[in-house]
Amino acid sequence: MRLRLWLTGIGGILIMAGAGCVKSPALTPAGGVPPASAPQPLSQPVLEVKDQAVINDQVVVERVVSAASVWVAIHRMAGNQAGEAVGQLLVSAGETKTFAVPVQKSKITDELTAMLHTDRGVVGTWEFPGADAPVAGPDGKPVMVKFRIIKSPVPAGASSRDQARQVKLEAKLDAIAEAATASPAPVVIMMEAKQWEFVPAIVRVKKGARVQLKIKSVDVNHGLGLPEFNVRAQLAVGKTTTVSFTADQTGSFPFFCTVYCGEKHGEMRGMLIVEE
């Protein structure tokens, strides 16, 4: 029999682990999660956050991995429970490394909790309490990491470890700001998925473009597979799903429906053309 569990800790990492028997401390949103916001499972999500100072009203998240777009919310503490969200940022499916989440500095506590939430309501709109429920791990508990806030600037007499953390954090924030300035705006393409076609079926972009496909499934559930760019998404009927990737190679790349949708499912295909 194969056992899996989640590990969590202060200023730590939340990841899938192998066989073992470690029980993490209970930490749930204050007052409990309302029924409409019960944790929703996603496959093998990862959340990494470290102890840090809050600089320029931002909290740095080291890494997120998720099978779907998720909100990364920063919750203040209410006793030993995660309370009100003081900041949130939507990240795309896949792996996202070293990014900043804006927070309301006046509302933060000495300890905070980073938590993953679904984006199941109006796509791209933060709805919690409500549709954007906490993402659940295999144990049914919310995926979250508790971390400590270091005073900024670091006071005289602070440990060398805290001083080193602040220097690294400031460097990361500078790098994030520089990358945001240098990166071009994403190319946004509106699409529809329906039996048995994508509209448009041919998508043309330039090499290096950051691409966002906003795809609405209009009749039944569909899916999107674009293997060369590690894209695989579920397209729920009636909803618009955002798929993001960087077109870092030239050529013609077929995409196709990955969810059986009727007798002509195999014909539901399209082509991404990336030009120099």
Bin the helical content.
Answer: under 10%
Structural class: mainly beta
Overall number of structural domains: 2
Quick check: average pLDDT?
Answer: 80
Largest sheet report: 5 strands, antiparallel
Count of β-strands: 21
Number of helical segments?
1
- Terminal CA distance: 51 Å
Overview of the structural elements:
By secondary structure, this protein is mainly beta. It has 2 domains: 5-182, no CATH class; 187-275, Cupredoxins -  blue copper proteins (Immunoglobulin-like, Sandwich), CATH 2.60.40.420. Helix content is 8%, strand content 45%. It is built from 1 helix and 21 strands. The strands form 6 sheets. It has a 5-stranded antiparallel β-sheet with strand order 1-2-4-6-9, covered by helices on one side. The chain has a 5-stranded mixed β-sheet with strand order 5-12-10-7-8. A hairpin with a 5-residue loop joins β1 and β2. The protein is elongated, with a radius of gyration of 21 Å. The termini are far apart. The model is unreliable at 1-37 (pLDDT under 50).
